[in-house]
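**User:** Once you have settled down, spend some time on the protein underneath, comparing sequence with structure tokens, and judge whether sequence predicts the tokens.
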Amino acid sequence: MWWNGRARAQPRTPTKGFAPGRLRDVLQAAIAPWRIQASTFAVHMLVLFLACYLFEVAGGAHLQAPSATPIVYDRNGTWLTQVGHESLGPDGARRIEFGYWTTEPPARVVQATLALEDRRFWSHPGVDPLAVLRAVGQHLSGAHGSGASTIAMQVARMQHPRPRTPWAKAVEAGTALVLVARYGHGAVLAQYLRLAPYGQSSHGIGHAARWYFDRPAGDLTWAQAALLAAVPQAPAVLALRRPAGEARAASRAAGALAVLARQGVLSADELDRARAELTRPALVATPHRPAALQVVLRLADIVRAAGAPADPADPRLRATLDLTLQTALTRLASAHLAGWRHAGAQQVAVMVVRRGSIEVLADIASAGFDSRPGGAIDFSAAQRSPGSTLKPFLYARALDRGLIQPDDVLADLPEGAPGINNADNAFLGPLLPRQALANSRNVPAANLLRRLGLQEGFGFLRDLGLHRLDGPADQFGLAMAIGALPTSLDRLVAAYSTLADDGMAADLVWLEGQRRAEPRRLISADAARLVTRFLSDPMARLPSFPRYGASEFPFAVALKTGTSQGYRDAWTVAWSQQYMVGVWVGRADAGPMTQLSGARAAGRLAQAVLLHLHGANRSDLLAGDFAAPPGREPAELCTSTGTRAAKDCAGRLTEWVKPGEAGTAAPAQPVVPRLTIVTPEPDSHLWRNPEAPPALNRLVLRATAEPKVAQIVWLVDGRPVAVAAPDEPVYWILTPGRHRFQIRLPLQADVSRAVSVVVE
């Protein structure tokens, strides 16, 4: 109830009969409390209205500097992209805007803008009373020829877009008054020129001058300044790149020039030249994104991550990318891919990096954004199985840890690494590290990882940037050495750049002046150069990779191929003295291809790319070589023993060894242990249980070794079936027939006495 207690407590005097005066007194007494309460309510509502108004005004009465739009060009000045910022329109819809401003608003732009938008700008406090009265009069008379928005009011609206309502107009007016009082006329005008829309999502006079005329705003002619000043009134209607819009904008710009002439700003000659130029404004063509859309999107992400450009008045950025090279290599890659489609290949990716500076010169992410299937996927960043391409890093780590030396002998034998086999299902026996890596043998690589330790190998590959996983290394096991650990082409190229740059790791460079971490040493120069020379020796690749194929060049090139299980991915990373090239070939669905290996597919394309980069027709290219490891000397070694080659040595390779170390010590005579099979007993006769599952019909194998050894190899009918400790039980599934059991030491030829059994 709105009346108060005093009003309720007033006594009522009884009356007799009807008395108009008395009735009036009664009514007045009854409504008096309501009148008092209504007045109080009105005051409260007015105060609330003013509070809301002032709150709205205070919230928008700050000049908020917009983010500048970086414009990215390739290394030769070809336009690539611009990185806009997202904003909300008055209707709440999200939109992308582009813009940047000039340090000082150019005088011509200022005068042309004020001539069209706010001629009394310098004399009013942010709201022009004369313009308001004129607009009200036109509205009452039914004419709508002009509005009353000043430069300051437009700044308020552009900073906080609202639907066009009387309330919004009132808030804009109040905000304009506060902005001018707080910051001054000059700052408000500069803010307008930062925010004003010029069509095609272009905001700010700096961006518009570059977008339409490809010049700084300070270099605009009078005609160009007036033409741009005409657009913000209605950017969609005055669109400069549409004939009708350009004509309307030119007409409005001519009006601005006439005003400036009357004000004495323009001479008669300047006015005539400006009017003549308006008939042919010579706008530059709208830049278009190149076909390499994935790399453009990658550059945009890199720019966003790096923050705004250093100079907001000229935020042009130059990428290291060479668009001409990118286009040529895209055609080259597509042509090679066409020849592999019959074998199931669907997509291709190529990266080219300049050695030394580690600048990315080309990044072909697919056969084309519109190619099918999967052309829109960035395959240079996609995580795939790398096959054998991680092996060189394990060799480098083992060299640094002293686990191997260049003259050591590694074994490529069936029992070397249980569960690991070579791609060709063959074994080459004893090999020098140079041969084992150049031939890409799986067993020696898995053994190196075992000696390093799974966790150390896993962590080292993470330090190289090949993955970002934190889980246990056991989930990948020894298969991590042959492709179980996924990575991407860009990560692989960056890691190989570490190997090629004497072991110094650094980030790939995508933009000139890009901020990046200081280079850090992950591999010694000695190990990096040794591995590089392992991978650049065509003789060391024999017999797995024949001479004069995709792996040889008329100049020094180190390379490593990789093929994932089932021929799902084919890789090659190759580098010369000047360039690093990475190639991937595969399918968008990660399905298998038909016999397309790293050497057959990716290696051919990598060779073509490097020849293109160096100039295949040049005659002055010499084979050359990579830098020798510091403090080492060449020595001809026997490949089967690692000692200096004697006359009777069948296989020879030149290796870099430390002075006086190779082949100087006589090999120690090994102690031959005595191996004995405990079970099965000789001439046993065994029967399978037909009611039991086949897996339960098994025989336990046990053995002893004196003196004790770490491992023995079990052979059944002359074939190795298991590697285990001598006292470790081994289970063999019973197979009908007569069988012969033997054991021997790993990598040794001598076997134990045979034990024969018969299984029924």
